[in-house]
Amino acid sequence: MADAKGDEVLAEGQMPLGRWPILSYGVGHMLNDITSACWFTYLLLFLQEIGLAPRDAAIVMLSGQVADGLMTILAGEMIDRFGHFKLWHIGGSILVGISFSSVFGGCLLCTVLGTDSYLVRTIGYSFFAAVFNIGWAATQVSHMSMVNCMTLNSTSRVALASCRNAFTMVANLGLYAIALVVFALVSAKACSDIVLQYRWIAYVSIFVGCCFLVVFYAGTKEPTLQSGSDCKKSARISWGYWFKKALYYQVALLYMLARLITNVSQSLIAFYVTRDLKMNEYSKAIIPAIIFCCSFLVSVVLQEIKWNSRRLKSLLTIGAILWVIAGAAVFVLPSQMHNLMYPLAMVIGAANALVMVTTIGLESALVGDDLNGCAFVYGSLSFLDKMSCGIALFVLESYEDSISCGETRGLYTVSRFGTGLIPSCFAVFALLVTSTLKLQDTNPRAAAAALEAPLLV
């Protein structure tokens, strides 16, 4: 009787998901995504505008990344032990909203202690950056690890990942639309006005993200596949199981490289377009918006593909090649030809979507049917992502010179390297790792199954 019930659960799990479960799941990361877009695009710029040196601004971001990386491991372990994906998601979202408003809202620690010393400001911003990333990690790991426990259907799993990535692009586009409106309504005649601009961007972003959370909590059920009677799925998988798999290391490297490519370039692009290419203030929102608009369009198209291992590798390779070309062009682009940044932004957007959707798909391929170890996989890979991005940005900013409000810089600066050449190098490394991948479609029939209803109508 128990076996029959377990077979029924597994059969139901292999059925393709419909449009509504995929869409409601996809919006569940919107608060994380819109605050992350603001964090990586504007945090370093904001901190330097309020007077922190580039190295100290990087310390604030690094403290957040370290806290984020450690929390991903803890959250992954706790979710694998106790489940309750949505409870972790809610708790993390609350921390994100409170701490994010505290970072961009001013130095709360300075207010409490009644001092505005440089050291206290650095410590205060670093503390709330850590709290923000702890909440962000709890939300991210719980949301990502839900995929393998919502369905066993390979195409639906990639559709969930692709839909999540598509709404990541919506969140980013929303952030840059908010930024454009704020830049238009709040004139930046002084550095204090610039600080006010970023605060309004942060507050509106939190409100928008919370609205989408309501849709996620209303439309997404707590996953139940882990409760199946199959002993393989009810016994918790140890860490050592994954460390014995060569594919784990390959996927970990590729996911880390994909995040380095997107996050490092995103963190420095506002500096690059305004100070290296000497474009106007609106370019801080327009260029990133073009990137994420193209990413969104490509991600939506990718949702309609019937996925298998060969297509994952092929599209990842194409995305990496596009980044090599675009990154090299960005690195050598002179300010007199800054209008070429618009088509380059389109190429970067398409490349970002290809590398992110495929590497997240590789995570699902790695987990397969080993559901009770999925949170550790997503947590440990996110740990590598956070630590590597934090260290990379800290090293880059350590070579940056302090710049006063409105000052421009010379050629071949840190932002030019970080926006173009370094992501290209990461993309070359990703191509090498991709060439070593040996994937197998564990359930060809499930992989070939179409979605119950297409996402494009």
TrEMBL record:
Pfam families xref list: MFS_2
Spans through the membrane: 87-113, 125-146, 166-188, 200-219, 247-273, 285-302, 314-333, 340-362, 417-437
InterPro entries, alphabetized: MFS_2, MFS_trans_sf
Cellular component terms (Gene Ontology): plasma membrane
A GO term, aspect molecular function: symporter activity
Biological process terms in GO annotation: carbohydrate transport
Keywords: Membrane, Transmembrane, Transmembrane helix
Cited PANTHER family: MAJOR FACILITATOR SUPERFAMILY DOMAIN-CONTAINING PROTEIN, PERMEASE, PUTATIVE, EXPRESSED-RELATED
UniProt similarity note: Belongs to the major facilitator superfamily.
Name of the featured protein: Major facilitator superfamily (MFS) profile domain-containing protein
